[in-house]
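Lecture 7 notes: from sequence to structure.
We start with the chain below.
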Amino acid sequence: MVNRRIAIIPARGGSKRIPEKNILEFFGKPMIAWTIEAAKESELFDRILVSTDDSKIASVSKEWGAEVPFLREKFADDHTPVSEATTSALQQAMTHWGEDYTTVVQLMANCPMRTSTDIVKALSQFERFDRVFQISCFKYGWMNPWWAVQLNNAGHPKRLFPETSNKRSQDLPELYCPTGAIWIAKADLLVQQKTFYGRDHVFDPISWESAVDIDDYEDFNFAKAVFKKASGP
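Predicted structure tokens for the same chain:
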């Protein structure tokens, strides 16, 4: 069997928190362009497919070198898990090009800080350890979820982990948070299970800078600050 890899970049239209988020300018390029270029520079993929329901996103994606031979047929709402949209796009791609794929890599368009080096490293880990589902994550730093609380209307806290309230941060286990930067799966198993959280899925850490995931304007401003810091004076 030919070892083919496909990168799928989900990018639906209709974003409510940031209108046209996926093509919003981010340091001189549409946001999605950063992901397309990272995928191209990795030189790992036989296909780089943008899955979108929006003709404007499709046009911009083609300009930056991605393939958009069809628009998304379904799963373009606010509620469907992105894994299902990616699975559907994978099946559309197999039918359209008459190709089978060994590996599918989902790269969210709203993670512009993830680089080609991150992609190469993640896929190397996936193949080296013969994994079936791999989800990118980052380690919590100064934010410590072990001390998280819920507040009632009067501002009184309810600890989520009361057993750790009196422990020092250095005495607590490290915690990790998933990020949409790089999700990888065996293509046939993704079609079967329709989720990257399938049986035997693992988390694979990347830097918190590469993991920045933009969903609202606060995230967007944070990403810009991180980018400027990384770019130097």
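Points to note: The longest strand covers residues 176-186. The chain has a mean pLDDT of 94.
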